[in-house]
Amino acid sequence: MLHYWKLSSPYLTRGHIRLLIPLLVLWCIWRLRNEAKYDGAMFSPTIIIRRVFGYLWRLQRAKRLQAKHWTGDLLVAKRLHFYYRAPQCNCDLIRDSRGHMIKAYFEFLGAQTNAYAGLYAVIRGLRIAREEGGTNVWVELDSMVVLHIIKKEEGDWKVQHLLTKLRQFKWQMIILFTHVLREANKPADLLANLACQKQTVEILSSPQGSSTPSLSLSKLYRVSLDFLIHG
């Protein structure tokens, strides 16, 4: 019966929720039946539902139940309060004042919030700018959320940890934060694709790079780019 059920939908791959829930229901019915027969336990559908949900919750906490297992049923996952964060990518494109690329950097961050990925991108870009001799930096962000967090210094403990690092850069450099539209951030789309495809960390250098202290860094997290300009 389960074999034919698996063939009934293209979504039903190994570990999919539409296969997992029927198996868990049958397993919980069998266990509760034995408990009722031999231990005098009460046989109740509510107990079965609660146990199935408990198994699903533990699987998610152990990272064995992922977003791919909910393909076609993401609305059900949301109603059951199962949430999954989209993977984040961080990219830095470093140019001199003439627009020539000095370095390019991309990194796959995995499942992170937009706030964390955005701040991580800013700090990574500031570190590269400092290594290249930058002291006066202009950071243009296309995320108003990240800009608000930086100005108000608000967020959870992960964000606060990054804000502490950001304050250290503020002590060492003159930094201006402003907002920029997404349309101004297209140059690093290729780096974003590379980050998501390779899921690794790479730093690329250009033979046309210059040692001039005038820099322009553009950074990408998820599908949005930030520009960091040192003049």
Automatic annotation (TrEMBL):
The record lists the lineage as: Eukaryota, Viridiplantae, Streptophyta, Embryophyta, Tracheophyta
Coiled-coil region list: none
The keyword Membrane is assigned to this record = yes
Q: Which UniProt keywords apply?
A: Membrane, Transmembrane, Transmembrane helix
Q: Which GO terms describe its molecular function?
A: nucleic acid binding; RNA-DNA hybrid ribonuclease activity
| Domain RNase H type-1: residue ranges | 93-195
Q: Is Transmembrane tagged as a keyword?
A: yes
User: What name is this protein filed under?
Assistant: RNase H type-1 domain-containing protein
Organism (species): Sesamum angolense
Q: Which residues cross the membrane?
A: 15-32
Q: Identify the InterPro entries for this entry.
A: RNase_H-like (IPR053151), RNase_H-like_dom_plant (IPR044730), RNaseH-like_sf (IPR012337), RNaseH_domain (IPR002156), RNaseH_sf (IPR036397)
